[in-house]
Amino acid sequence: MKKVYLDYNATTPVRKEVLEEMLPYFSEKFGNPSSLHRFGQETRKVIEDVRKKIADFLNADPLEIYFTSGGTESNNLAIKGVVFESKFEKPHVITTKIEHHAVLEVCKWLEERNFIELTLLDVDKFGMVNPDDVIKNIKENTVLVSIMHANNEVGTIQPLKEIGEKLQIVNSERIKKGVPEVYFHTDAVQTVGKIDIDVNKLKLHLLSLSAHKFYGPKGIGAIYIRKGTRITSLIQGGHHEREIRAGTENLPGIVGLGKAIEVAKEKMYEEEERVKKLRDKLKSLITENISDVLILGHPEKTLPNTLSVLFKYVEGEAVVLQLDMEGIATSSGSACSSGSGESSHVLRAMNVPQDFIRGAVRFSLGKDNTEDDIIYTFEKLKDVIKKLRDISPLYKKNV
Question: Which phi and psi (to 5°) does residue 90 adopt?
Answer without folding.
Answer: -140, 90
